[in-house]
Amino acid sequence: MSDNVPNPAPKPTAPSNRWEDLNARTWTGLLMVVIGVVAIRLGGVWFQMLVVFVTAVMIWELARMIRPGWDVGSMLLAAFSASVISGLLSQNPDWHLFLLLVPGLVGMAAMPREKLTFMLFALGITVAGWGLVTARDTYGGTWLFWVVIVVVVTDIGGYFAGRWFGGPKFWPSISPKKTWSGTVAGWIGAGLVGALFLTFTNAGRDLIWISMLLSFASQMGDIAESAMKRRVGVKDSSSLIPGHGGLFDRFDGLLGASLFMLLLALVVDVPRVNI
To answer: What is d(CA 170, CA 177) in angstroms, rounded to the nearest whole number?
Structure first.
């Protein structure tokens, strides 16, 4: 005769909180936006110092991700990168721009692995940093506000739509949390930002779809950094921002958007808008 003892009921599992990181993301995002807006508005040496600092920190994080434990070397490389970019921003001749390659080449020589990965990302970081300051001086701060707002709206729209609607993943092997619903929401939000900027700038209606392309470039910046982190086996670029990794984790989208804006300026006549 078998014992008919019922199996104990399974313990209920706590439901996953889709919004568990919302508070930290909100305050971190607001702080960075405020700092960025103030620096863009002030322009000049203030904006240059912020960009050079962020660029140097991202180089430091990149070096430490690929070569863990190389603390002193990473700091020296970051300081060298800051010196190169600062020097270029004080010079006018375009032929000096080849020096943007130097930090990546120096770091590549010191990397025991992923040399090409370091070179490509370091070049993207230094070019974007130089380009942001140059764009501020050439075209005025309004267009940088446009870039920053598009990136922020893309991130916010993707975050809320992705967690609210869910659905198929955009690129699950690289970024498991990114969904198609969040990706498309970012494009729509960016298009609305473009439409808003039409009301007080002399840009044409093409700005709407260009804003959507800028949003996509921002998302690809995020995807590129995610792929690189998976390749080198790290979760966060650093621990500078508690619970949110490093500056590279927060500025990867802006990096992609900045590089897209630089390419755009080569083929499109960008009017200067003073603020």
So the answer is: 8
The pTM (predicted TM-score) of the whole model is: 0.86
Query: What sign has the CA pseudo-torsion 155, 143, 48, 107?
Result: positive
Q: What's the chain's length in residues?
A: 275
Task: Tell me the C-alpha distance between 67 and 112, whole Å.
Answer: 7
Give the residue from 43, 22, 26, 237 showing the smallest Cα distance to 143. 43
User: Residue 62 in contact with residue 125, Cβ under 8 Å?
Assistant: yes
Judged on CB neighbours under 10 Å (0-12, 13-18, 19+), 273 is middle
> What tokens were used for 1?
């005769």
CB 165 within 8 A of CB 179: yes
Q: Tell me the Cα Rg of the chain.
A: 21
Is the separation of the CB atoms in 259 and 124 below 8 Å? yes
Instruction: Say which residues have a Cβ less than 8 Å from residue 74's Cβ, sequence separation at least 6.
Output: 60, 63, 64, 67
Give the CA angle between residues 236, 175, 184 to the nearest 5°: 125
68: left (phi over 0), alpha (psi -120 to 50) or beta: beta
Task: Give mean pLDDT in consecutive 10-residue pieces for the chain, a chain of 275 residues.
Answer: 47 50 68 86 93 96 95 96 92 80 96 96 96 90 93 90 87 86 95 94 89 96 94 90 79 94 85 64
Amino acid occupying residue 272: R
> What amino acid is encoded at 56 in this protein?
A
Tokens of 129: 């940093």
